[in-house]
Amino acid sequence: MNVFDRTINIDALFRFSQISHSTQVHLKNVYSSLAVCMFVAAAGSYVHVVTRLLQGGVLSVLGSLAMMFWLAMTPHNPETEKKRLGILAAFAFLTGVGLGPTLDFVIAVNPSIILTAFLGTSVIFICFTLSALYAKRRSYLFLGGTLMSGLSILFLMSLMNLFFGSVMLFK
C-alpha cells in the first residue's frame, strides 16, 4: 500500500474516545524507538567530542541522509523490523556525530549548555512518553504531555530557587 493512496479521516481528529490496545502498543513502540535514538545520538556526539574517532562533517551528513533514504526504501514487515531499527540507530548515531562541530562551538562558549539541553530534552520527552503510554482517553494525549512538562519546569525552578534565592523566581 502506497502512503499517498490512503484516505485521511478528518473526523478522527475530533473524536476523544478511548484509545484501543493496539494503538497503545504502537505508541509504546514509537516512543521506545525514539528514546533509543535519543541515546544513540548522544553516543554519536560523545564519540565526536570526547574520543575524536569520527569527525562530524560532510561525510556524516551524507551518511545520515543515506541511512534515512535506506530506511524509507526498506519495506515495513515483521521480517525487516530489526533491520529497520538498526538503520534508524545508525541514522541517529551519524546525526549525533554530525552535531559534533556545533557541540565543539557550544563547549567553547559554556559547556553546561549541553548538559542542560540534554536533561531538559529528556525530561520533556519522558513526560510526553508517560502521558502517551498511560492515557486511556485521547483528550489526555493533548493535555498530559504539556501539563507534565510545565509541572516539571515549575518543580525544577522551585528546586533551583532553594539554592539561588531569587525573588523573581519566588514570585
From TrEMBL:
InterPro entries: Bax_inhbtr1_CS, Bax_inhibitor_1-related. It comes from the Eukaryota. Keywords: Apoptosis, Membrane, Transmembrane, Transmembrane helix. It is found in: Membrane. It is a multi-pass membrane protein. Coiled coil: none annotated. The chain crosses the membrane at residues 30-47, 53-73, 85-107, 113-135, 147-170. Its main location: membrane. The keyword Transmembrane helix applies. Pfam families: Bax1-I. Belongs to the BI1 family. This is Transmembrane BAX inhibitor motif-containing protein 6.
